[in-house]
Amino acid sequence: MTINTLSQDGVQRQQMPCLTKMERMIISMQDPDMGIKLRNQRLLITVIPHKCSISDEEALHVGQLFVKYGYIYPLKEPRNLILKADDSSYRFQTPYYWMSTRWPASELDYAIYLAKKNIRKQGELIEYEKECYNALHKRINHTWDFVVMQAREQLRASKQRRKGDRIVLECQEQAYWLVNRPPPGTQDSIDHGPERRTTNTRVQLNSYHNHFYVKYCEQYQPHDPIMQGCLPSNPWITDDIMFWNMNSETVALPTKLRVERWSFSFMELLNDQMGRKEFLTYLEKEFSAENLCFWQACEDVRHGETAKIPEKVDEVYKQFLAPGASRWVNIDSKTMEKTLEGLKRPHRFVLDDAQMHIYFLMKKDSYPRYLKSELYKNLLARAIVPQETKKSVFPFMRRQRHSSPSPALATQTAEDDGKAKKTRIVTINNIKLKLNPIRKKKRFWDSQIYK
Amino acid sequence: MACQGLAKGETTNTLKAESESLKAKLEEERAKLHDVELHQVAEKIDALGQFVMKTRRTLKGHGNKVLCMDWCRDKRRIVSSSQDGKVIVWDAYTTNKEHAVTMPCTWVMACAYAPSGCAVACGGLDNKCSVYPLSLDKNENLAAKKKSVAMHTNYLSSCSFTNSDMQILTSSGDGTCALWDVESGQLLQSFHGHSADVLSLDLAPSETGNTFVSGGCDKKANVWDMRSGQNVQSFETHESDINNVKYYPSGDAFATGSDDATCRLYDLRADREVAIYSKDSIIFGASSVDFSLSGRLLFAGYNDYTINVWDVLKGTRVAILFGHENRVSTVRVSPDGTAFCSGSWDNTLRIWA
């Protein structure tokens, strides 16, 4: 953990104020009325900047800086970051890649970029890129699988774009990296001298995090009974357990809040047994239910008894991974190879890579589509909003506190035909037991109402 | 510099004075840093209104100090353990006791409910963690089916089941944490890195479910990778023992309660402390912390018999809850966030809502 110090006079300094000024100019250059004339997706630099009265030489010089700092990039010779006073074409860089938004460039992002290039060019990277790639591979080895997976995902996503868009995006990305990771021998245009420790960089790096907390709390506040109450009422306060009954695992129709919560994150959907069931139904319609079943089977291996691991792993292989398996899952060849190799000596984590791959596949693809599906929207529309019940005012009419069947009564492994085994789940509501409500004999002055 | 002998004109006293003044400067700078921190961003959001929480249930039955408790996933049952060796399972809603076990040792500092609701784990001065399957046969002696799972070389301070009934994570006075297979009692992974007793641990609520955080008497909070046993992050800003650690609901941060009378929030991505919850009037250590469901509130139990409720975002105290007649040793929010339970050295547990 590093300690930063404020500058002498306690005033916060803005790092590189030149960036704001540059960006202001770039924006005005793109003004539809007063700015530079653009052609289709190309831009011809004729006059820079458009408003100030300065000499052509100075204008060219300012333009050079724009190119050096990545706000404009050349199309013909992308590696040559200079502005030529002829009619060669340039393009404005998208704000996403501006220095003020994405600086310093993250190592992880660079690794992903190089990995993408490596895959596309099948290992034929330029010399210095190859060196960087190998160095990164060593340095951040522990997240390398994530890097490769991200690269693959991004490539896959980009294939689904229109060709024109794809080309532009690739140019933008390349331009960004040429500025932020200049090839050896070229000038590092963004070299800014020794690091000066001010608090401002801290604010830039952290204000995103702090906004995250605010967002998270706001999103979950309606679901937080202590913050905002719960409908129909909080059982602890009113002695009415409707709230628990309406939110049990096997209720016929869920509450609206509960269904809404599934849209917060993929994890929320999976953590709710009912959500998981609904999602499985959706996947079945899409003929990709094996993904969820596979994921569940992997969870069972990870969290189950050590002694049963080899047989469980073998089952998983037979059902999901073997060639011609009945519920074969689509894993990329590299992960499959690695997994199959590991299966020779099965251990608790041997399926982790494959499981993560399928998890992210569902998260990025099936999950968003499920949230847009008729199945989900219908359920949300039909979901219940309970009516509020108030705490009874008269002490003589205090409600009896009903006991509930203990989870220790029965353990039931939920096993549906053809689906993978889940971990032990207790379905309390399946147990039909008649229990007399237990009457607590209390002295009048002990009554909760009087506390 | 620290390895050289005293230079001319220096005495241990002058060096001490210098180190104290540097510490004070650090505090000053750190305080300035907080001016642009979490609570500044939170300025724009509404302050919390009048806060009303009362004791809704009082659970009496332990004969001695209550040291630990845990909720069952059914949202109403709890397990609690005490100094006299008793472990009790209650339906907190009806306040009925459903099971009772007498441990062969005193000071049962750790207890946990299994995810299935069919077993409990506990341990303490016996240096072990044992799992008791819960049988509904009133005549059956639960102790007969007890399974000894973990073995440490000093007291067991905390235990937790992972996602299933089959694995337990423990922390101990011997300075280590460990992951165990319940069926076989086999040690699956051990975690070394603390330089003093480890007092608390909490599992991360993450998608990949592979990390946990621990806090100890070395003032450090360490984040561990369960697979490799490696210490991936470490935080050391507390001035005294860390008694309790708890993850923020999203898993991106965690809170700590310490004997230095402060609670702190550490952000895992920023890799640093982002908030301190303290007040001049709070002098006694915080023994236990937990978040409300949305993460907006932090409930902290203190050794001065009170529970303070903090606004996590603004850093201010929202309420102070009186009621216990001795130290509050444990505070846990229920799984659906409808209430929280506190256990105390006054032998009782209270449910607040």
TrEMBL record, chain A:
Q: Where is this region: Disordered?
A: 398-417
Please give a single GO biological process term from the UniProt record.
G protein-coupled receptor signaling pathway
- Polar residues compositional bias: what residue ranges? 403-413
Question: Where is coiled-coil annotated?
Answer: none
Family annotation (CDD domains):
DEP_RGS7-like
Leader sequence segment: none
Pfam families in the cross-refs: G-gamma, RGS, RGS_DHEX
Asked whether the UniProt record includes Repressor among its keywords, one would answer no
Keyword field: Signal transduction inhibitor
PROSITE patterns membership: RGS (PS50132)
- A GO term, aspect molecular function: GTPase activator activity
Alphabetical list of InterPro entries matching this protein:
G-protein_gamma-like_dom, GGL_sf, RGS, RGS6/7/9/11, RGS6/7/9/11_DHEX_sf, RGS_DHEX, RGS_sf, RGS_subdomain_2
Q: Name one GO cellular component term.
A: neuron projection
Q: Which positions fall inside the RGS domain?
A: 265-380
Q: Does the keyword Transport apply?
A: no
Please identify the protein, giving its name as recorded. Answer: Regulator of G protein signaling 11
Q: Please tell me the species this chain comes from.
A: Cyprinus carpio
TrEMBL record, chain B:
Q: Which UniProt keywords apply?
A: Coiled coil, Repeat, Transducer, WD repeat
- From which domain of life does this come? Eukaryota
- Fetch the InterPro entries from UniProt: G-protein_beta_1-5, WD40/YVTN_repeat-like_dom_sf, WD40_G-protein_beta-like, WD40_PAC1, WD40_repeat_CS, WD40_repeat_dom_sf, WD40_rpt
UniProt-listed Gene3D superfamilies: YVTN repeat-like/Quinoprotein amine dehydrogenase
A GO biological process of this protein is:
signal transduction
Recorded coiled-coil stretches: 12-39
Keyword Repeat assigned to the entry: answer is yes
Which Pfam families does this chain map to? WD40_Gbeta
WD repeat segments: 59-100, 149-190, 191-234, 235-276, 288-320, 321-353
List the PANTHER family hit by this protein, alphabetically.
GUANINE NUCLEOTIDE-BINDING PROTEIN BETA G PROTEIN BETA
The protein's assembly and partners: May interact with RGS9; this interaction stabilizes both proteins and increases RGS9 GTPase-activating protein (GAP) activity, hence accelerating the deactivation of D(2) dopamine receptor-mediated signaling.
Would you identify the family this protein belongs to, as annotated?
Belongs to the WD repeat G protein beta family.
Know the name of this protein? Guanine nucleotide binding protein (G protein), beta 5b
Lineage in the entry?
Answer: Eukaryota, Metazoa, Chordata, Craniata, Vertebrata
